Amino acid sequence: MSFACVIPHYRHLGTVAAAAEGARQHLDDVRVIDDGTPDFPEELSARLAALGVKLYRRGRNRGKGAVLLAAARLLAADGVTHMIVMDADGQHDPGDLPRLMAASNAHPDAVIVGCRDFEHARSVPRSSRFGRAFSNFWVRLETGTACADTQSGYRVYPVAGLTGTRFFCRRYNFEIEALVKLLWGGYGLFEVEIPVSYTPPGGRISHFDPLRDNLRLTLLHTCLVTRQLLPVPHRKLVKTPPSPGGFRELLHPLDFIRRLLRENADPAGLAASAAVGTFLAVLPLVGVHMAVILYVCIRFKLNKVMALAIQNLFMPPLSPFLCIETGYFLRHGVFWTQFTLQNCLGELHLRLWEWLLGSLLLAPAFALISWIAVFAASSFLKNRRARA
Questions:
Q1: H or E segment at 213?
Q2: Coil, strand or helix: which one is 240?
Q3: Tens digit of pLDDT for each residue in 39-88?
Q4: Is 3 helix (H, G, I), strand (E, B) or coil?
Q5: pLDDT number for residue 343
Q6: Three-state secondary structure readout of 22-56
Q7: Number of helices and strands (H, E) in the chain?
Q8: Cα angle vertex 144, ends 142, 147, to 5°?
Q9: Structural contact between residues 355 and 330, judged by C-beta atoms closer than 8 angstroms
Q10: CB of 374 within 8 A of CB of 277?
């Protein structure tokens, strides 16, 4: 295995040299990839050269994802197997490089993620805390793998995984797409807890655009969830052991039941399973609720027992009645009170339409309630068992 540290750079003229110098103390191969910074100072180029750092300058700004893909191609051509990515703004401590490399040596077919310690860090923006939790939820849903910091930019990538996968994103959303697709391809995930330093508000240069980049992330997660729902296997980039299951498992029903109960049985996994089961149970999927819930749980690697159990709370007639009443109110501004044979059967198509309209409001609301209730209950039980 061989490593190179890549530092993507755009307008971080005051911090990139210190970051590169710190990385150079732990690694011989350090490369700064400038993404089209205008008026790049010659003295900065000279300082990086004096440090033994390779500088690559791109003609115009194309985004962090484009920089990382270009860097991966450079490293592949030079025979480097693993790329360490470190931000240029001073947020990451170069002293953590040996720990990341040690983890990568122990897990060569894995993406190593530096999990930022937000509990002890100062000046962490609330938007960063919320964004990380939001992103963690969707990545877990898309891959079935829990990651504590899916937005961390301090990572070690297997170069072959980046060069052997097709990516569509070229901005900040690339890091989410890369993580998800490498996990789909059979690469593992290993986390290393790292400290993080945030400059107080107003002192840190950030190129994240709240409107455009959040829109890009939303579209990306929509595409990834849709792809995961398709009954088409993902192309494997590395060999993985076969997953448990198949005909042999039927010969050991108790082991099969135990595995069903254990899969994604942590509080977050159970809560996600309950939310998905609730959402689908409220929709007007007449006659196929159980089949759809099972299929979605298999694709998203959710806890099937929890999802199927919680759907019983939303069986007819209560859930459809509430949805129809809500849909009727949306159409007419009043609730449905005339329960005649003509209204129930003669206007069945209207009732189904109202059921759909009402479910579009009630399904997300009930799913959120289920998520909160199951997460709180399972967390309480987990902590209680830990104390006992």
A1: helix 210-229
A2: coil
A3: 899 999 999 999 999 999 998 889 999 999 999 999 999 999 999 999 99
A4: strand
A5: 82
A6: HHHCCCCCEEEEECCCCCCCHHHHHHHHHCCCEEE
A7: 16, 7
A8: 90
A9: no
A10: no
- Residue 344's CB is within 10 A of a number of other CB atoms, namely 12
Write phi, then psi, for 82 (nearest 5 degrees).
-135, 135
- Cβ proximity of 220 and 177 under 8 Å: yes
DSSP 243-273: PS-SHHHHT-HHHHHHHHHHTT-SHHHHHHH
Nearest to 44 by CA among 32, 36, 26: 32
Where residue 124 falls (left for φ over 0; alpha for ψ -120 to 50; beta otherwise) is beta
Average pLDDT over residues 361-368: 96
pLDDT band at 142 (very low <50, low <70, confident <90, very high): very high
What domains are there in the chain, each with its CATH number?
A: 3-229 (3.90.550.10), 247-387 (no CATH)
Q: What is the DSSP letter of 342?
A: I
Tokens of 202: 């107003």
**What is the rounded CA–CA span in Å between residue 332 and residue 342?**
18
Residue 82 host element (H or E) = strand 82-85
Q: How many residues does the chain have?
A: 388
- Choice between 316 and 23, residue whose per-residue pLDDT is larger: 23
Distance CA 355, CA 369 (A): 20
- Name residue, tokens 């494997």: 236
Q: Is 130 exposed, middle or buried (0-12, 13-18, 19+ CB in 10 A)?
A: exposed
State the Cα–Cα distance between residues 365 and 351, nearest whole angstrom.
21
Q: Which residues pair with 55 in a beta bridge?
A: 32
The burial of 190, by beta-carbon neighbours within 10 Å (0-12 exposed, 13-18 middle, 19 or more buried), is given as middle
Decide if 272 contacts 304 (C-beta within 8 A).
no
Beta strand ranges found along 161-254 (DSSP E):
188-194
Q: Is the pLDDT of residue 243 over 70?
A: no
Query: What is residue 257's predicted lDDT score, i.e. its pLDDT?
Result: 56
